[in-house]
Amino acid sequence: MISACLEIIGLGLSVIGTLLVMVACGLPMWKVSAFIEGNIVVAQTIWDGLWMSCVVQSTGQMQCKMHDSFLALTTDLQTARALTVISAVLGVLALMITIAGAQCTNCISKESIKAKVVNVGGVIYIIAGLFVLVPLCWMANNIISEFYNPQVPYSKKREIGAALYIGWAASAMLFFGGAILCFSRPQDEKSSYPLKYVPPPTKSTSVNGDYDKRNYV
User: Fold this and answer.
1) Mean of the pLDDT values across residues 105-116?
2) What is the pTM of this model?
């Protein structure tokens, strides 16, 4: 019962983390224009994402344009796009593997194999969390470095957007969910061995039919 609850909790966290990865991948708010010093009063806000760039006017109108070429992007954006897509694909793959080995399904009959399958799904979720965490930290480091670089003009400085915070939350859920799945059923393999019943020793009798006196203390 406890292992089933742990599986549900781990799978729920992992599925939410995978959905958040997909949301962070699609949002254009990875880099947001910074409002500092002479750039405080502006008529528009610039968002830079993995797939498009958007300009939000002070009137509320927003115009977005898809990136023309993948090779024209900066290295951090190229890496972030590739790794986040891989992370989302791994999350879907881990979901199918975990469901196949879950206790509530009958895809696999042997319990020891089902436990190993669930553990494999948890490991894949942890790898997916690592794949999305690397570009997030790289992107945040570049944004902070350019922000404090005096050679970069104020109009080109950017701040950390909402997509990065969503991605960090997604990676944390993938890590925790995958870890719970890995340790949800550690004793299944040991309990799969059958228990042998050993009958108690019988009392020996003497030749004349009486019990042997050695049986009494």
Assistant:
1) 80
2) 0.78
